[in-house]
Amino acid sequence: MLIKIIVGGLLLLMVYNLFRAMLVMLKDEPNQPPMSKFIGRRVLLSAIIVILLLVAMATGLITPNPRMF
Question: What would the 3-class secondary structure string for 27-45 be?
Answer without folding.
Answer: CCCCCCCCHHHHHHHHHHH
